[in-house]
Amino acid sequence: MRIDPDKCIGCGKCQSYCTMWGGVMHLERHPNLPSRVITVIDEDECVECSVCLRSGCCPTEALFQPILEWPRIVRKNFSDPLKIHPETRIPGRGTEEMKTNDITGRYPRGMYGMALELGRPGVGARFSDVEKVARALATRGVEFEENNPVTKLMADRKKGLIHPAVLGEKVLSAIVEFMIPAENLPQILGTLDRVSREINTVFSGDIISRVAPDGSVLSVKNLEEMKRFISINGKSNVGLGRPRAMDERNVEFRMRIAE
């Protein structure tokens, strides 16, 4: 995002809409007219979310979106909530798999789907930190989710290496997704503990697992045994599609109907 210095009147209204805060938008003297104060953008810290522009807050229409080339366009792909990732054709920073598991059955019993979101509004994340986490996970032999925008940026998925040109780019947040056998959870969490000391942003972890027929959730039991903090969240997606034909609950339901 940029500001036309000749149109800007330095009112500062746009600053409250910046998702990065912390001086990304700040007041300076006009480069050619020292008597005028204008708002400028630190482009290295801007994540190209376009929130300020879409707010319509600028009274002189000084804000404008320049043409973004590779690799800067990656910032908008990950940070603008209205942008659809060209590689996955899915908006947002993750995939649809974790949120629609009742329909897709992507994560079967005995397997955990995991998502690690690096960065948040006000903090952001650079892909150099995303790569540190991916590389640490790769040493554990995880297979990264195919239809995920971070995975699409990897130059070497076996090693968790992000395309070098992207490493300096900053985004609102980025999500690393993968699937592991349930018994590997302690090793994965230990790896994340170690790499968390090496990155310069925040990150949170999500685990999705199937609910057992008796209503228990194995991942919750595992985390409680390891004395890990957990925040249990449930999500129901109704009407998004037809359950997988081989899903055991669906088969059981059909058998009851047949009887």
Task: Explain the overall architecture.
The chain is α+β, with helices and mostly antiparallel strands and 259 residues long. The protein has 8 helices and 12 strands. It has 2 domains: 2-66, Alpha-Beta Plaits, CATH 3.30.70.20; 90-229, Alpha-Beta Plaits, CATH 3.30.70.260. Helices cover 24% and strands 18% of the residues. The strands form 5 sheets. The protein has a 4-stranded antiparallel β-sheet. It is elongated.
Comma- or semicolon-separated keywords:
Alpha-Beta Plaits, 259 residues, two-stranded antiparallel ribbon, 18% strand, elongated, alpha+beta, four-stranded antiparallel beta sheet
Q: Write the CATH homologous superfamily of the largest domain.
A: ACT domain
Low-confidence stretches: 250-259
Q: Which percent range describes the beta-strand content? A: 15-25%
- Overall, the morphology is elongated
CATH topology of the largest domain: Alpha-Beta Plaits
| Percent in helix | 10-25%
CATH architecture of the largest domain: 2-Layer Sandwich
Order of helices and strands: EEEHEHHEEHEHEEEEHEHH
Number of strands: 12
| Major pleated sheet | 4 strands, antiparallel
Q: What's the CATH C level of the largest domain?
A: Alpha Beta
What does the radius of gyration come to?
A: 22 Å
The total domain count is 2
What structural category do the secondary elements indicate?
A: alpha+beta
Strand order of the largest sheet: 7-11-5-12
Number of helices: 8
Distance between the termini: 63 Å
Mean pLDDT: 86
